[in-house]
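Friendly challenge for the regulars: who can give me the structure tokens for this chain first? No prize, just bragging rights.
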Amino acid sequence: MARMTSSARPHLNRRLAAFGTTIFAEMSALAVATGAINLGQGFPDTDGPEEIREAAVRALRDGRGNQYPPGPGVPELRTAIAAHQRRRYGLSYDPDTEVLVTAGATEAIAASLLALVEPGDEVVALEPYYDSYAASIAMAGGTRVPVTLRPHDGSFRLDLDELRAAVTGRTRLLLVNTPHNPTGTVLTCAELAAIAELAVERDLLVVTDEVYEHLVFDGAEHLPLAAFPGMRERTVSIGSAGKTFSFTGWKVGWVTAAPALVSAVRAVKQFLTYVASGPFQYAVAEALALPDSYFEGFRRSMLARRDILAEGLTAAGFEVFRPAGTYFVTTDIRPLGEKDGFAFCRALPERAGVVAIPNAVFYDDREAGAPFVRFAFCKREEVLREAAERLRRM
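First reply, four minutes later:
Bragging rights claimed.
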């Protein structure tokens, strides 16, 4: 048999061939083309605190961060991250050896998985999952093993027996996201304790994506997995300034973990972006030191927006899973006589002047996610009211 020549071989690495253009790019382009209200991609339509924006301007003018910042991140930000973890959760991290600044949480996820996963390793991830998880696992050569959160009594819940059954002798790592995008589920203390017990028992590493840590509602509480017994030394915790301070374009994220884990992640990160977001790092350091009143006000503001959109979607005929966290609402379109989320979302901009995301893109089992559609509520209240009215008229 003739050997395939380099010109005949596909240009894209086969591990990534299945991913293509993200659904966010497709739906955002539809929003622009149709003039629809974009409730698809999760970015706010207003900037965060003015004093933090001015802190970035001040850093630029003072020449702080305009050249390459230190590889692990500027000391001011690493110190602020450690102080935030201690103040909020009682977790103590050494800013010099246990904190790493990244180009957003997406790089933190990619660098963590590339560092910790080798070809043949299995990674158990909660499904539906943020789309970069699948791509990062594929780039590392790992095998993705989904454990599906399923709808139950108005929310999506984790089956702990299914999680335990998914762990095999080849499992290297658990990838946990709470508060969970896209379902809005916040894992309970009992669920997290069971995950911790499983990780310790089977000697697993855990990567936790906690970027929505400050957006929890209705009495839910964000509890970092690293705080549970036996988890401090085996958990890589990922945070982000973008979601908490509404400056998603700054791309400032971070990792907190034991020194050996941070060292491994940093070894990969240095060959991805090397460094990023220099002046913005100084601004985020000031943002993390804002008083508790800021974080509570931000949460209340997003809660009000959640309720505006959730009530509007209910009035429009969707089944609504009111989220306990994040700034996304997942809906079931079957009460509208629909069952294909892809077709529904591609037609929605013309039908109603609104853009949403089909949840099926976040599933290995596309059929399991087919009837679910996600809307973002991190928009101005008047925009959400207009979107709700358009959907109601549809």
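The two ends are 57 Å apart (CA to CA). Residues 105 and 253 are 5 Å apart (CA to CA). Your move, everyone else.
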